[in-house]
Model the fold of this input.
Amino acid sequence: MADTFNYRIDHHGSLVRPPGLDRTDAASLAAALAGAVAYQRKLRSTVVTDGGYPYEDFRGAVLENVTGVRRTDRTGADGLAVWAADTLPEAEDPLAVDHAKRLAELTVIAPKVTLPAPSYLAATLESPLKARELGEAFAEIIRAEIARLVDAGVRLVQLDNPLLLAATATDGPAAGPLPYADALAIDALAVGLDTRPEGVRIGYFPGATAPATVDRAAAERLFTEIPADRWILPLRSASAAELDLVRTLPEDRDVCFGVVDAAAPDLEDIDTVLDRLDAAGELKDLEDAAISPTQGFADIASHPLLTEAQQHSKLVLVETLARYVWGNEF
Done:
């Protein structure tokens, strides 16, 4: 089985931005990143990220660093700026490696980097191109970036497609610009590195909320066709659907349970969360598990889900829960 020893206390990557941060100013950004690292280490997190500070939103590491795409002046219903792809994207330089190296210089903890899944970009960008073709171009870029990140010392890379879990519903969504089979094939291309150095994990976040009921065949395709090492799955209530996802997860894959709601200010009851983890533990060995908030705290920089104080309380709760489950094994 996979070893999650170093990554028990996880978070998705984005944090509430500190007041006064100017991400376009190198000194301001450097000071903010140093503060973010100190903050995460004080919280005893076993991963360290850049908090998403360098980017407008969680797609920024890719969209702000490739050619062929442009930001429009419109905002979608999800609050994200609408981007368009006029031609197939190309990356002239590394995307997130420089920020990861700066993080590595600030702490002995190997940094974690979160990137948008290529299937998500292909499904959401406006483009005259075929979605499959667009997705494959993004997949090649992201695959190359993951390899560079690993070479730079990053040991945990997470890909995010917050829309994909909905496709495992028994009444799966109508076919959109990117059919389910295409989404799986595209992201498999991005994740399928030739080799995985010891200790390297590639995680995949398919969404913060499980569907009402799960088509286990569709879930099995998700977990087997995308060769991710770790799956970040919701455990908001230990519902039948959430447990079906756990039940379908292959034995040799790690799981990170989203147990603390990053969008709700009230703190969860510890005993209630532990009961949920016990239910999941009947289906998946918790020695191959980790815990985290359900999603990022500020995947859109200008629209944080909580205040800094509320975020802090949530992350402290994740650390406390981890100690209840695993003692001091991190």
